[in-house]
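Supplementary notes for students who missed Thursday's class. We covered one full example, reproduced here. Read the sequence, then the structure, then the short commentary at the end.
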Amino acid sequence: MRAIRGWLGVSRVRPSSKRLYATQASRIPQLLAILRQNPELSEQDAKNELRWMNQAVDHEPSLLDERSRDATIMDMVTRRSRCEPLQYILGLFALIVHARIRV
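Structure (token representation):
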């Protein structure tokens, strides 16, 4: 678990989310392969961007259950693989999350 947490760049893990990280860790190679379809990304770029996507989703853990979290990460990865700027993807996610909080 320690290596997984370090790779994802998570400084602390809530007990309820440990299983979630294990689930996500098994999908890391698949997610990286999808990200690498973007010709703009090197292998290291793809790892960094996947880490940033995870951090953005983990910032709002109370809003996403495991299935929603996985679907959100997959959506972000797919959009980025089609060369959509990462700033747009992360910015739109933050906008949607904050709109849910206010409603």
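Commentary. Residues 2-102 form one domain. The chain has one domain: 2-102. If anything here is unclear, bring it to office hours.
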